[in-house]
Each structure stands twice: as C-alpha cells, then as structure tokens.
Amino acid sequence: MEAKSKDLWVFIETKEDGSAKNVGIELLNPGRELANKQGGKLVAVVVGYNTKAAVEEAGKHGADQIIVVDGEEYKVFSTDAYKLAMLHVIEKYAPTTILIGATPEGRDFAPRLSCNLKTGLTADCTGLDIDDETGNMIWTRPTFGGNLMACIMCPDNRPQMGTVRPGVFKKPAETENKAEVITEDFHVTPDQIRTEVLKVMKESAADFVDLEGADIIVSGGRGVGGADGFKILKDLADALGGVVGASRAAVDEGWISHSHQVGQTGKTVGPKLYIACGISGAIQHAAGITGSDVIVAINKDADAPIFDIADYGVVGNLFDIVPVFTEEVKKL
Ligand code: FAD
C-alpha cells in the first residue's frame, strides 16, 4: 500500500471503562520524536466504547490529531472488530508508520492487520529509531533468548508496523496543545465478529500485581530461597508503597505466581525504584528492568552481574539486610 502521508500513528488501547491503557500513552513519547523525524503528524488512534477519557489523555500527552472509532461493539476486545476498525482507518488515511502496544490484545490483532495490509510487522520491540538516509523505521527487538538484539527494517511496504512492549517508554509530559479530533462513524455488524466472549476469567485479587504501573518494585530471585522468603520482601514493598516482583527462577520454583515475573518472558518494568534481592542479573532479567530510574541490588556474591547494571549495591545476605531496611523505612 502507498502511504498518503508521513504521519506516525500510535494505537491507543482502551479499557472497558473507556480510559486509555498506559502503553498507548507511553508510545506517544517515542512517537513524537519519530513523527518529527519523519516530517509528519503524531496521530493517536483510539478504538473503544465511551472513549472520552482516552481521547483526553491522548490529547494532553501530545498527539497532534486523534482519530476515534467508538461503538459498543468495541467495549470488549474482539479480534475481528478491532482489526476491521483499524483496517478501515488505515486504508482511508494510509499513514507511514503504526506503533501498537505488545499487550495480549495488540499481539493478537496486529499480525492479522499487517497480513491484511500485506505489510511487515516487527513484534515485541524494545527500541525504535529512524534510519536518516532512507527514512525507514529501525525496529529493535531481543532475539536468541535475549542474547542478541535484532534491528529490523521494512523497506518496501507501507505502513511499517510494530508492536512495542509496555513499560519500555515513559509517558510523555503533559502539554497545552490542542489536538484535532476526527470521529470515524465505523461500525461492525455481529455477523462480522466470528467469536463470542463466553466468560472473562480474572486473576484473583491476591495474585494480581500491576508491575507495569508501579513506581517501586521489590523483586526476589532464587536467593530468596522459598515462598516464605518473599514475605520479607512483601513487608519492604508495603513499607515503601510498592509491589513485589520476581525472577523467572523464583516463578519456576513455584514460590510466586507468573504475574510477578519481570524480564524477557515476564513484564518489562519502568519504576522509579527497583530493588533486586537475591537475583543474579541474567541478561533475560536485565532486559526487563533497564527502564528503571534507580536499581538497587542486594546480593551476597560481589561478582553477580546485577551489580553491573545497579546504581547502588549491597553485598550481603538479604535475610540480614531486608528486615533492617524495612524497619528504617517504617521510621520515616
Ligand atoms: P540465580 O541466577 O540462581 O541467582 C540467584 C542469586 O541469588 C545469586 O546471584 C546468588 O548470589 C544470590 N543469593 C543467593 N542467596 C542469597 C542471599 N541469602 N542473599 C543475597 N543474595 C543471595 N529470567 C527472568 O528473571 N525473567 C525472564 O523473563 C526470563 N526469561 C527467560 C527467557 C529465556 C528464553 C531464557 C533462556 C531464560 C529466561 N530467564 C528469565 C532465566 C534467566 O536466564 C535466569 O536463569 C534467571 O533470571 C535467574 O534467576 P535468579 O537470578 O533468581 O537466579
């Protein structure tokens, strides 16, 4: 497909209440810089139901233009409805580049969309840039178990499409700019939706943890030694107003649920403070935490690789250090 504009689009995924999920707003941050480099507008595309809150969020975080597809059929995610809505607006406006969050929903409809558009899709990116010479996007994503970073281009086809992991970019600062809002009256009929949602299973409240939205994360690894070891991390997290994360080793041992896993096959996080306790700092774990503002490592092995990426390190036994740390925090 020929691009009609140099515009860069960011898909703003919505929740059932019509507000924006974090990832879409985060993507407006790199989107701004990339749109400027491309010489086009930064366009937010909002699909959902009663999307006023999401449209306002996208506007105040720097979108130049917002395209809205609003309808009851978009309230609960459906692959067909979302794909058809996006296909409609893409074919009408033909942008050059589209960024979509690598959420379960984004990972579901983005490949179908790119297939319908006969263009490429780079999935699960952690870095975005533009090649100055050709103007093509350079999509960066981990490969070979996180041991290599692949840089991928889609030189011939448009739009260039990629999904980007949540938590990799920070939300952009709020602006006073007023975005132009275009409402597309596009609806899909029930017979176009080939699936029916019978039941929505929610994680139990005890298991749910919002790692991607957390400002403070206290994470534990194999060094925590068992499910009981996580109790002292939870005490510290509670004292700091944070949440508990984990390495894959701890999750695989069954000490804590997978929703707490940080890293390449877990969540990519970007808190203000990340405290890694008894975590060695394997590349697959490090891949998920480099967006943190400050990393503190507590490890009894002074040569553990986690100290290479930590801003502050404490060499010692976490069972001696963490309770003292918690008591000191409680005094503040
Ligand atoms: P270990 O590497 O065993 O480290 C334990 C650390 O605890 C050691 O450094 C030790 O010195 C320290 N320690 C022990 N006792 C104490 C104590 N009492 N006090 C202080 N320190 C102590 N891993 C992830 O975390 N997230 C992922 O998403 C992920 N995805 C992966 C994807 C692939 C394809 C592959 C191949 C691997 C992936 N891994 C992932 C696994 C990763 O390679 C490591 O095996 C894992 O991160 C190790 O976890 P760990 O640091 O808790 O354990």
Q: What does it look like?
A:
The protein is of the alpha/beta class. The protein has 2 domains: 185 residues, HUPs (Rossmann fold, 3-Layer(aba) Sandwich); 118 residues, Rossmann fold, CATH 3.40.50. 28% of the residues lie in helices and 23% in strands. It is built from 9 helices and 15 strands. Strands 5-9-4-1-2-3-10 form a 7-stranded parallel β-sheet, sandwiched between helices. 46% of the residues are buried. Flavin-adenine dinucleotide binds next to helix 6, helix 7, strand 14 and helix 9. The site of flavin-adenine dinucleotide has 29 residues, from helix 6, helix 7, strand 14 and helix 9.
What are the key terms here?
Rossmann fold; globular; 332 residues; 2 domains; 7-stranded parallel sheet; binds flavin-adenine dinucleotide; 9 helices; 28% helix; alpha/beta
CATH fold topology of the largest domain: Rossmann fold
- Low-pLDDT runs of 5+ residues are none
Terminal CA distance: 60 Å
Strand order of the largest sheet: 5-9-4-1-2-3-10
Relative helix content: 25-40%
Q: What is the CATH C-level name of the largest domain?
A: Alpha Beta
Kindly provide the radius of gyration, computed on alpha-carbon positions and rounded to a whole number of angstroms. Answer: 21 Å
Corresponding CATH superfamily of the largest domain: HUPs
Structure ligands: flavin-adenine dinucleotide
Overall geometric form? globular
Instruction: Output mean pLDDT.
Output: 94
Which series of helices and strands comes N to C?
EHEHEHEHEEEEEEEHEHEHEHEH
Query: What percentage of amino acids are in beta strands?
Result: 15-25%
CATH architectural grouping of the largest domain = 3-Layer(aba) Sandwich
Number of strands: 15
Continuous helix count = 9
The secondary structure category is alpha/beta
Q: For the report, how would you describe the main beta sheet?
A: 7 strands, parallel
Family: Belongs to the ETF alpha-subunit/FixB family.
Cofactor: FAD
Keywords: Electron transport, FAD, Flavoprotein, Transport
Protein name: Electron transfer flavoprotein subunit alpha
